[in-house]
C-alpha cells in the first residue's frame, strides 16, 4: 500500500512499513502491473491488460513501447516496489531515466504515465488533457480520503490513474476505516484540478510522489511553496527551488 508520513501515522497498513520522507528512491511502497489481490483493479485493451495492485512487487523486464503506440520508442516497466518512493517534487523517484529537472520525455518505469499539473510545469505538457483518454490505467483521477467516524479539518487526496486510485481506495476502505468515496476525473472542463486555478489539491499540497510520479498523495493543509507554479524551473538544466514545507506537524 502506498503510504507516507503523516498519512501512515494515521491510517497504518496491516503489516509492512510506513513511508519515508523526501528520498528520491526510497524503500517500501507500491507498484504497478503485476499481481492482483485485495485492492486491485484492471483495465483491458486490445493490446494488453494492465493491473494496478496495492500488493504488487513490480519488477519484470524493461520493454520498448512499440511503433504506432503513444510514446513509441520509450522504455517501460522494470521498476520494483522497493523503488517506488519519490519526494514532494514532481520528477522525483525514477529508478532509471531520471535526468535533469523536467520530467517530460522520460521512460515509464512502472508502465503508468506521470500525473499532469499545468502547462510548462516541469516540462510535463505531453502528459496533459490531450492524452487523458489514452492513459495507461485510465483517466487521471482523484479521490478524497475520509475516515468514517469523523470529519477532519485536513483532507488527504489520492491522485493517479483511475485503476491505481481505485486499487488503493479498495484497500483503505475495508482495512483502515475509510469512507467508500467516488473516484472522480481530475479534469474539469479540460483543466487539471492540480493547476491551482480550479479545485484542490494544488501542486504545493502534494506530500509525496510515488511510482515515477504516476501517483501522488496530497494534504489540504500542507504547503510546499517550492512547488508553486510561479516557482517552476525554466529549463531542464535549471535547478529546482529548495523545498519549503509548512504543516502543523512538520518543521518548515
Write structural notes for this entry:
45% of the residues are buried. Residues 1-49 and 196-200 have low confidence and may be disordered. The two termini are 27 Å apart. The chain is 8% helix and 19% strand. The strands form 5 sheets. Strands 8-6-7-12-11 form a 5-stranded antiparallel beta sheet, covered by helices on one side. It has a 3-stranded antiparallel beta sheet with strand order 1-3-2, covered by helices on one side. The chain has a two-stranded antiparallel ribbon with strand order 4-5. With 252 residues, the protein is mostly beta strands.
Features:
globular, three-stranded antiparallel sheet, mainly beta, five-stranded antiparallel sheet, 252 residues, 8% helix
Segments where pLDDT lies below 50 for 5+ residues? 1-49, 196-200
Tell me the overall shape.
Answer: globular
How is the largest sheet built, in terms of strand order? Answer: 8-6-7-12-11
Question: Given the structure, what is the number of helices?
Answer: 2
Structural Rg: 17 Å
Topology:
Blueprint: H1 7-10, E1 31-32, E2 40-44, E3 49-53, E4 63-64, E5 75-76, E6 140-145, E7 156-161, H2 162-176, E8 184-185, E9 187-188, E10 191-192, E11 206-210, E12 215-219, E13 223-224, E14 245-246
Antiparallel strand pairs: 1-3, 2-3, 4-5, 6-7, 6-8, 7-12, 9-10, 11-12, 13-14
